[in-house]
Amino acid sequence: MIPALNGTKEEMEKIAAFLEPLPVRKIELLPYHRLGINKYELLGLSYSLSGMKTPERQQMEFFMEPFLKRGMQVSTNTI
After folding, report:
1. 3-state helix, strand, coil in the chain (%, to 5)
2. Which of 2, 19, 50, 66 could bridge 32 with an S-S bond, Cβ 3.0-4.6 Å?
3. Measuring CA to CA, which residue among 68, 71, 73 is closest to residue 12?
4. Quick check: 25 and 74 in contact, CB under 8 A?
């Protein structure tokens, strides 16, 4: 889940609705993390998401709701 890209409840609703008719019953929401920034710096590349923050657990749990209400098993982790 990348806050600036798909970090809204509406986006999660769309994804859950897309998955609902498919044989997908278990998903893992992965939060954006900043672990790759060092690699970009070492390669001399600019990291376009450098100002982005990792979502907190509470925010990730909020985004799990559209999947849960459709009967999907959802897990997440936070860094």
Report:
1. 40, 10, 50
2. 2
3. 68
4. no
**pLDDT recorded at residue 78:** 66
Least Cα distance to 32 among 1, 63, 75, 77 occurs for: 1
For residue 64, the number of C-alpha atoms closer than 13 Å in the C-beta half-sphere is 21
pLDDT of residue 74: 94
Residue 33 identity: H
Side-chain-facing half-sphere of 30: CA atoms under 13 Å = 3
